Amino acid sequence: MAEPVRILIIDDDPDFKASVRSLLESRGCLVFEADSGREGLEKLPECKPDLILLDVMMESSSEGYGVNQAIKWREEFAAYRNIPVVMVSSIQQEPDEMFPMAGELEMIRPDFYVRKPLDIPAFLASLDRVLPGRILSGTEPR
After folding, report:
1. DSSP string, 20-81
2. Distance CA 126, CA 23 (A)
3. What does the longest C-alpha to C-alpha distance in the chain come to?
4. What is the pLDDT along the chain (142 residues), one digit of tens a residue?
């Protein structure tokens, strides 16, 4: 039997985390949670995630980008640089309009953006693009 996909959700909304946890666990994923960017970074060694779901706006309006930058640039997180990061946000504006990135900042762009509230089929499809065949391989919930 294949190892379950390990997903770390970093979000300050308990309802969002609970609903996403339920959805992902029904597909055999092992889900970890953090309420803030700092807590999420601290949990990386324990969780060893295959994927990070990261809210943009938590304690500050761009906290998620700071977390992604830490993972991608800071030496103490070098072991986690290749983990895909999917940013989730209730911001309806295009992310590049609100947080334009050019030059060096281009390196902190997440692997994918997803809007809240989630469109479940589109959300699962985006996770499947980031981790091909690992989330949707058994698309029927358990």
Report:
1. HHHHHHTTT-EEEEESSHHHHHHHHHHH--SEEEEES-SSSTTHHHHHHHHHHH-GGGGGGT
2. 14
3. 44
4. 678 999 999 999 999 999 999 999 999 999 999 999 999 999 999 999 999 999 988 887 778 888 998 998 899 999 999 999 999 988 765 555 555 555 555 556 778 888 899 999 999 999 999 999 888 754 444 3
- CA-wise closest residue to 51 among 65, 40, 35, 61: 40
Question: Measured between alpha carbons, how far is 63 from 86 in angstroms, rounded to an integer?
Answer: 14
> Which domains, and CATH codes, for the chain?
6-130 (3.40.50.2300)
User: Is beta strand 85-89 parallel, antiparallel or unpaired with respect to 30-34?
Assistant: unpaired
CB 7 within 8 A of CB 51: yes
